[in-house]
Amino acid sequence: MKRDSRLSGVLHVLLHMAETDGPVTSEQLAKAMQTNPVVIRRIMAGLRNQGLVRSTKGHGGGWTIAKELSTVTLRDIYEALGSPEFFAMGNRTEAPGCLVEEAVNAAMDDTFARAEALLLERLGEVTLAALSADFHTRVTRRATHCEFEDAPHAA
């Protein structure tokens, strides 16, 4: 079963946008995500409908983030995507009158509900600002690591 990577992809796009001064076109975002601009426009339209991004048409137009990164949570973005299913697993429903199936499904439903609640809670705690800060920390770490590797070795 193919995994739904829209949330990860949108977060990737939004962080690219956060690093850019001014609007970013669907074509630019599609190139960064190695997808079709139509896919980007479809996804971004959902974010625009939730007030997370805005678009401007014409020369110099494109997509911009509409809110402060610190006010946008991963849950906000997840919900703007239509709250896709978290789990590919589901319950067996071939024997609706079977008490064993009912017991198993009840336990699985409870487990899935608890796991989903935990995931939603965590998504609500992480902001785009936190992702951006993590990105910048990684950039600094990599630059420092590269400088160290490139430095002449003491004899």
Write the layout of secondary structure elements.
Elements: H1 6-18, H2 26-33, H3 37-49, E1 53-56, E2 62-65, H4 74-80, H5 99-125, H6 128-150
Antiparallel strand pairs: 1-2
What labels describe this entry?
155 residues; mainly alpha; Arc Repressor Mutant, subunit A; two-stranded antiparallel sheet; 6 helices; 2 strands; 5% strand
Describe this structure in words.
This protein is mostly helical. It has one domain: Arc Repressor Mutant, subunit A (Orthogonal Bundle). The chain has 6 helices and 2 strands. The chain has a two-stranded antiparallel ribbon with strand order 1-2. It is elongated, with a radius of gyration of 21 Å. The termini are far apart.
CATH class: Mainly Alpha
Please identify the structural class as seen in this structure.
mainly alpha
**Strand line-up across the major sheet:** 1-2
Beta-strand percentage range? 5-15%
Tally of individual domains = 1
CATH superfamily: Winged helix-like DNA-binding domain superfamily/Winged helix DNA-binding domain
- What CATH calls the topology is Arc Repressor Mutant, subunit A
**Poorly predicted runs of 5 or more residues:** 148-155
**Helical stretch tally:** 6
Pfam family, one: Rrf2
GO molecular function, one term: DNA-binding transcription factor activity
GO cellular component, one term: cytosol
Protein name: Possible transcriptional regulator
